Amino acid sequence: MSNRFRNSPNPDLLHVATLGRVVGLKGDIKLNLHTDFPEQFAKGATFDLDNGKTITLQSYNPDRELAHIVGYDTPETAKGLTNAKLFTTHEATRARCKLADGEFFWFDLPGLNVFEGEKLLGTVIEVERIGPQDYLLIKTDNALVLQEFPTTFLIPYIDRFVLNIDLETKKISVDGGIDLLEAS
């Protein structure tokens, strides 16, 4: 699984980075990434800020995670952007970020139904990253909640548990999900 985008005030926008401290004398600014796709920070890429403004990248150094933003050429002007959040759209993300086979954007998974065999376990609410591991947060199916199972549970996003994801049928097939639900 790839790409972590969260904390957007607008569900159509994805929080991909937060601007940090200014570095150097030309207004370069540290990008604190909230995505697994640094390649989207290419020259000319535009992003919306949480204050409603739009910025354009003049350059990005992925080794140092430093960006230079068009029109912010001094440390003084760039400091005004410190702590601003950068947002982009789902469409721009799909255009800029290429997935390998078997990879999915986090924003594609909420709403998918989770099955073990033919048994519906629940629906993905969101994807969470806890430490180095990604987890599917599942809202337990009401029929199981009535059997006094927890209302939510986590499934680690690893091959041992997640067998298949089909975006067309909105179905995730898992193994061991019932055991995880019972242990929750």
List strands and helices in order, with pairings:
Elements: E1 13-23, E2 28-33, E3 46-49, E4 54-61, E5 66-69, H1 75-79, E6 85-89, H2 90-96, E7 113-116, E8 119-130, E9 133-140, H3 142-145, E10 152-156, E11 162-166, E12 171-174, H4 177-183
Report on the architecture of this protein.
With 184 residues, the chain is mainly β. The protein has two domains: 13-103, RimM (Elongation Factor Tu (Ef-tu), domain 3), CATH 2.40.30; 109-183, SH3 type barrels (Roll), CATH 2.30.30.240. Helices cover 12% and strands 41% of the residues. The strands form two sheets. The chain has a six-stranded antiparallel β-barrel. Strands 10-9-8-7-12-11 form a six-stranded mixed sheet. It is elongated, with a radius of gyration of 20 Å. Residues 1-8 have low confidence and may be disordered.
Quote the average pLDDT. Answer: 90
CATH architecture descriptor name of the largest domain: Beta Barrel
- Classified by CATH, the class of the largest domain is Mainly Beta
Distance between the termini: 23 Å
The total strand number stands at 12
Tell me the strand order in the biggest sheet: 1-2-5-4-3-6
Order of helices and strands: EEEEEHEHEEEHEEEH
| Helix-residue proportion | 10-25%
CATH H-level homologous superfamily name of the largest domain: RimM
Number of domains: 2
What is the general shape?
A: elongated
Radius of gyration: 20 Å
What class do helices, strands and sheet pairing give?
mainly beta
Give the number of helices: 4
Descriptive tags:
single chain; 184 residues; mainly beta; SH3 type barrels; 2 domains; 6-stranded mixed β-sheet; 12% helix; disordered N terminus
